[in-house]
Structure formats: structure tokens, C-alpha cells
Specification:
- The complex is a heterodimer of chains A (271) and B (218).
- With 271 residues, chain A is an all-alpha fold.
- Chain A folds into three domains: 94 residues, no CATH class; 83 residues, no CATH class; 62 residues, no CATH class.
- Chain A has eleven helices and no strands.
- The longest helix of chain A is centred in the C-terminal third of the chain and has 36 residues.
- Chain A is extended.
- Chain B contains six helices and no strands.
- The model of chain B has no long low-confidence stretch (mean pLDDT 89).
- The chains are: A mainly alpha (271), B mainly alpha (218).
- The interface between A and B is large, with 140 and 125 residues.
Chain lengths: 271, 218
């Protein structure tokens, strides 16, 4: 079953010292050569490369899932051993896109500072904050007092404050939504009120006179109604939504994998 | 407290007040601290991407363990940056294609591991036997049966509401979809209530920070 693993370790054995540097340099030279070679290809061939790359990347997980596994307790097939490595590769590839975002931030805010556009001071603060945080984290490390204070006392506080502000905006938006007098809006408001009251002491106090359990009257306690709403009414509705999302994701996944998707990105010519 | 912590608390407190000033109206003070927040968050993202992904999953296996084929990730990752060259920007679609391919391949596994068990668990017994009642549950057989029936009705009604493959002309379908819509509103209300309470908890935490950690009250 592990023949592929053995084959790969024979073809690509770990190298150290000079052998490692030679392998890296050869790979880089090959990349550069390949870069210029594929640039010479006609648009149709370029599109084939993109479609092929998409298909073969998706084929790994699909094959690992569909190919029969050996009997339990291993429950694996000849590709299963590579799943953690491919998952790491995916994470690493995603991590490389970070530079695109950072470049975009630096370009926009750097231009604001250089051209002294209105409110350019804010851009200085943004770039300064980014550099200080990155240097403190990568340079001095997680255990340094400066980084810990910057993270815990400043960033975590700002993060909490930003999300706390949303409480006001959500309530303001809800007020506007509830002004539309319809059956739907009423249901929304009633269940929101019950859930909120069931989670705060004053809400629990209102029905605190009712027995906690052992009687049908306990069903009328606000905390019990709130819990029932979340587990019996909310759960099936959100589950139905997630089934819809799951089927949609499966359909989109298939279309992406087989490059059947339409739209500006997928139909653009590879020129 | 040492000076860095004290300074951090003061910046955190002034920043919290500045960010809260948006509730009154948009102002320069808010804008300044909003930019500082974005800058710090971007810096943190750089640090965490290196520390949690690139260093342990790419650099260490490649350089320390000698697994040189990991250099392939650099070549493929580098292709993302061809997006800035008009002549070579098509190559960025190779890397994007690989990422999309990997993601779409994973969807089969997600469906099997997440949705199939959920579908199985959704088939609840409509007539509950005494043995089906979990230990510690205060519900009676009748209560649990009613809950399960309600669960199934809501699930079927909401799924009917999302059936767009055909026109809702049949009275049963229309009624079921209408009930599904109302049940969705109930569910959204419950989600809304929980979200507001979560935000309120954050607000209480901020007020506690200002009162206790910063001003030393309480």
C-alpha cells in the first residue's frame, strides 16, 4: 500500500549540505526557464495549462476520497499518506498571497504619504503600526514584553472595541427593520427578544417564580424558552440552510474543478 | 506594571474611546485609531503567517529536514505576483487554478464528513421510546416526540422554501414554503438575539477594561 510513499522518497530523497543547495539552485533555474518557455506558448495552450493545473490539483483530493480504502483499522488508500503534505502545501500557497495584500496596502498608503494627500498622517500611522507590529513579532518574538503588550493591550483592545461598536449598529439596524410591520418582522423580533431576555439576569428574574424543573410550568421560564428556541426551532432551520449551502458548494466545486464555471475570470483569454 | 505595559494600556484605553467616538459621529480621532488598528492587524497577520504557516510548514521541512521539493511552493507562489505585469499576468491564474482545484477537491470530503452525518442525524424518531431519551434529559416521551416532530416539520418546510427547481404552484408546496419562511424568521431572530448578546459581552468587557485596568476602579 505504501509503494507510492517509497517511490517518492527514492525519487526525492532529503538532501543536506551542498547537495541541498545544488538541488535548490537547479530547481530555481528550471523555474526561470519554464517561466520564459510557457510565456512563448499560444493563448490556447496557456488556457490548457490553467485548466490542467486546476484539474490535477483537485484530482488528488477527489481520488483520495473515491478510491477504495484498505479494510479497517487502517482505512486508508495509497494516497492517504500524502493528505497532510498536500494540506500543508495548500496552506503555504495561500500564505504566499499575503504579499499581494501587503503590497496593495503599502502602494496605496505609501502614495498618500509621498504625495501628501489629505489625511496622509493616517497613512503614516497605518504603515508605522504595521512595521512596528511585524518587527516586534518577528524580531523580538512572542515572548518579548513589548510584543505581548502591543498585542494584548493595544491590538486585542482595539479588536474588542471594533466588534463592540457593532452592538450599537446592529440594534440601530434592527430598529429600522422592526418598523416594517409584517408577520415576518414580528416573529423575528419576538424570538430575538426571548433569546436575549433568556440570557440576561433581568430576563431570568422575570420568570424566576416558576419552578426550574419537575413541572410543566418550568417550560414557561424564559431561559427554558430561549434554550428551546435555539435547539428546536433554530437548529433545523439553520441545518436546512447548511444543506442548501453544501449542495451549492458541491456543485460549484465540480464546476470549478472541471473548469466549467463562467464569468470574467474564467472566460478571460490567457494572453 | 512596567512602562511598556502601562503605555500599552494607555494607548489601548485612548484607542478604545476613540473607536467608540464613532457612535456619536465620524471624526478625525476615530479615523486615526482606525488606521492604527488596520496597521497593527496587518503587522500581526505578517507575523502569524510566517510563524504559524510559512516557518513550520514550509521553511522547516525544506531547510532543516532537507525536503528540497518544497521549493516548488515558492515557484508556484511567486506566480501570484505576475499579476502586476500586464505581459505575464495570465500566469497568476495557474496558481489561482491550483488553489481553486485543491479547494474544489476538498469539497467532496467536506460533503462526506460534514453533511452526510448531519443528514443522518436529522432523521429523528417521531415516536420516542423510553430508551431513546438521553440520560439527564428532563423531557418526557411525549415532549421529546413533539420536539422531534417539530424539528422534522421545520426542516422539511425550510428545505421546501429553498427549492427553486420548479415553480411553487401546488398548495401544499406553497403552504410548506410559507411556513418555512416564517420559521426562518424565527431562526434569524434567535441568531440575531445571540449575536447582540455576544456583542454586548464584548462591550461589557471594554467597559471593564476602561474602568478596572485603565482607571483602576472597582
Amino acid at each position: 500500500m505504501d509503494w507510492l510513499q517509497r517511490l517518492l522518497s527514492r525519487l526525492f530523497p532529503p538532501l543536506h549540505g551542498t547537495g541541498f543547495y545544488i538541488a535548490i539552485i537547479v530547481c530555481l533555474i528550471l523555474f526561470v526557464a519554464l517561466f520564459f518557455v510557457i510565456q512563448l506558448l499560444p493563448p490556447k495552450a496557456r488556457k490548457m495549462i490553467i485548466v490542467g493545473a486546476t484539474f490535477f490539483a483537485g484530482l488528488f483530493y477527489a481520488a483520495e476520497f473515491f478510491l477504495p480504502a484498505s479494510p479497517k483499522p487502517k482505512d486508508e488508500n495509497f494516497l492517504t499518506f500524502a493528505v497532510p503534505t498536500v494540506a500543508n502545501f495548500q496552506n503555504v500557497l495561500t500564505a504566499f498571497t499575503l504579499g499581494l495584500g501587503i503590497y496593495s496596502l503599502v502602494r496605496v498608503h505609501g502614495s498618500n504619504v509621498l504625495k501628501q494627500k489629505p489625511n496622509w498622517e493616517n497613512s503614516v500611522v497605518l504603515l508605522g503600526g504595521m512595521i512596528v507590529m511585524a518587527v516586534a513579532g518577528l524580531g523580538w518574538g512572542e515572548k518579548s514584553l513589548f510584543y505581548r503588550s502591543l498585542f494584548r493591550d493595544v491590538l486585542a483592545n482595539f479588536d474588542g472595541a471594533m466588534f463592540a461598536i457593532l452592538a450599537f449598529f446592529i440594534i440601530s439596524a434592527a430598529y429600522r427593520a422592526f418598523r416594517i410591520r409584517s408577520a415576518e418582522a414580528t416573529l423575528l423580533m419576538v424570538s430575538a427578544l426571548v433569546v436575549m431576555l433568556g440570557q440576561i439576569p433581568i430576563g431570568q428574574f422575570i420568570t424566576s417564580g416558576l419552578p426550574e424543573n419537575g413541572s410543566y410550568l418550568s417550560l414557561l421560564r424564559l431561559d427554558n424558552i430561549s434554550n428551546w428556541l435555539l435547539t428546536t426551532v433554530n437548529a433545523p432551520a439553520t441545518r436546512a440552510i447548511s444543506f442548501g449551502l453544501g449542495i451549492g458548494a458541491l456543485a460549484i466545486g465540480l464546476r470549478l474543478w472541471l473548469s466549467l464555471e463562467r464569468g470574467a475570470y474564467f472566460e478571460a483569454k490567457a494572453e | 506594571m512596567v512602562w511598556t505595559t502601562t503605555l500599552g494600556v494607555w494607548v489601548g484605553a485612548i484607542g478604545t474611546l476613540a473607536l467608540f467616538s464613532l457612535i456619536y459621529r465620524e471624526n478625525r480621532f476615530y479615523r486615526l485609531f482606525e488606521h492604527l488598528f488596520i496597521g497593527l492587524a496587518a503587522g500581526f497577520l505578517i507575523k502569524s503567517t510566517w510563524d504559524e504557516t510559512l516557518y513550520p510548514q514550509w521553511w522547516t521541512p525544506m531547510v532543516k529536514d532537507g525536503q528540497w521539493p518544497w521549493i516548488l511552493a515558492l515557484g508556484l507562489g511567486g506566480l501570484f505576483y505576475t499579476i502586476y505585469s500586464k505581459k505575464h499576468s495570465w500566469m497568476s491564474r495557474i496558481s489561482i487554478g491550483v488553489l481553486l482545484g485543491l479547494l474544489s477537491g476538498q469539497i467532496f470530503q467536506t460533503t462526506a464528513n460534514e453533511f452526510i452525518p448531519q443528514i443522518q442525524r436529522s432523521f429523528k424518531p417521531l415516536v420516542v421510546q423510553a430508551a431513546d431519551i438521553p440520560q439527564g434529559s428532563q423531557l418526557t416521551q411525549l415532549g421529546m416526540s413533539l420536539n422531534n416532530i417539530l424539528f422534522m416539520v421545520i426542516l422539511v418546510c425550510v428545505i421546501t422554501y429553498f427549492l427553486f427547481s420548479f415553480e411553487h404552484k401546488n398548495k401544499v408546496i406553497t403552504g410548506s414554503a410559507r411556513t418555512g419562511r416564517l420559521m426562518l424568521m424565527f431562526a434569524f431572530g434567535a441568531i440575531f438575539g445571540s449575536t447582540v448578546m455576544a456583542r454586548m459581552a464584548l462591550l461589557i468587557d471594554r467597559v471593564w477594561f476602561l474602568m478596572h485596568t485603565w482607571l483602576g476602579l472597582g
